[in-house]
Amino acid sequence: MPATLLEWSVPAAILLCATGLCAARFVGFNTLRWGCALACLGTGYAIMLVQASELSPYKQAVEDAFILGGVILACRALQSRRRGQTSCYVDVAVLLASTAMVIVSVVLFASAKLETFFVQACCAFVIWRSTLPFARQVETTSDKVLATAFLFIALVLTGQCVLYIGAPTPLLAMGEWRTSVWGTLIQYTGLLGSIVLTFAVFIATSYDAIEKYRRQAHTDALTGLLNRQGLDSLLASVSRGALSEAAPTGVIMADIDNFKHINDVFGHAFGDTVLARFGALLRPKADAHLCAARLGGEEFLLLLPGATLESATAIAEEIRANFVAQRWAPHAPNSRFTASIGVTLTQAGEPFAHALKRADDLLYTAKRRGRNCTVAGAAPGGAAHGLARFSGMPPPPSRPTPQTSPPVR
């Protein structure tokens, strides 16, 4: 019996979803892999409607391979969002096993029901195997949306497998299965899953785009650290008093010494290199619990939740010493650049802005003491103590300098 226009609407709708996902790739959405998965799935459903009994069981094996292949591609697209993608050998083994079971069902048992059950079961297995590990490590809203969509599809397929086992079905010839209630159910299950997946992918990629632009707006392009806007956003997202009441937070304020002179002597491009190198020294210190930011110009900030004044000072000294030890060939092979650092702790119930001001005052104290040193102080009054070791100041620049006192910064 030839397929009706209504039946052809199922693969047409799936292929339309695939086309939309592939086309979205050209406007910046990372949806091509999802589009290819649905294109493979839609092709399988289209082959299912082709009347070619003389090609049995090859036709059934091909259409089911396309359907299962589409599911596998969608699952691998899901896994690509997280590390730990499963081996492709397992997917190939499932595909080959499904094809063998389909051929056995058609040739030995002439049962479209058994064929459908095997394909549904393999699809459900592939989705559960990919989705459960992914769902356990979701972090972003977009990942939650995709995990929910895949779990829904997996539950629907599993429910259908149980239904096929438990519910009595009439004896139908191979050609009659497609037009029966069971054949219609399998077709519209594929359509429902495709529509759910398409909406989930577009929602997830929209969230990804929003997060990407937010991250770009909050990140300093030169150093990769937070910028002032990103720091303000981070502090605003922290619950009231969390920085000062739960545990003391080390506040390290650093400033590259004589940075304007570096720009004047070696050029702004080299000055950017100096800033990037200094930012790289702070970046390993910043993990999920720490925060590093470039406040502007040559001034940097590092927050160390749970640190003591001694441990924060030790970290600041390590950063300062590593910066002094940097080599700058070929542009400034004989130059050594330094930084001045102020270190303090947040006090119980103290606004963070006060601790930031105190760290800045300690930084100015380090400048007045000759630069290239770390000054630490914990008292709210800003009393400084613990003058760090001095290292050799950088050699005279290649250009003569004015005979005026350098600015404090």
Alpha carbon gyration radius? 32 Å
Sheet-strand content, in percent, reads: 5-15%
Shape: elongated
Sheet having the most strands: 5 strands, mixed
Structural classification: alpha+beta
State the share of residues found in helices, binned by percent.
55-70%
Number of helices: 13
Name the strands of the widest sheet in spatial order: 2-3-1-4-5
* Terminal Cα span: 86 Å
Strand tally: 5
Commentary on this structure:
The protein has 409 residues and is α+β, with helices and mostly antiparallel strands. The protein is 58% helix and 8% strand. The chain contains 13 helices and five strands. Helix 1 (5-24) packs antiparallel against helix 2, helix 3 packs parallel to helix 5 and helix 4 (88-107) packs antiparallel against helix 5 (112-136). It starts with a helix and ends in a 33-residue tail after the last strand.
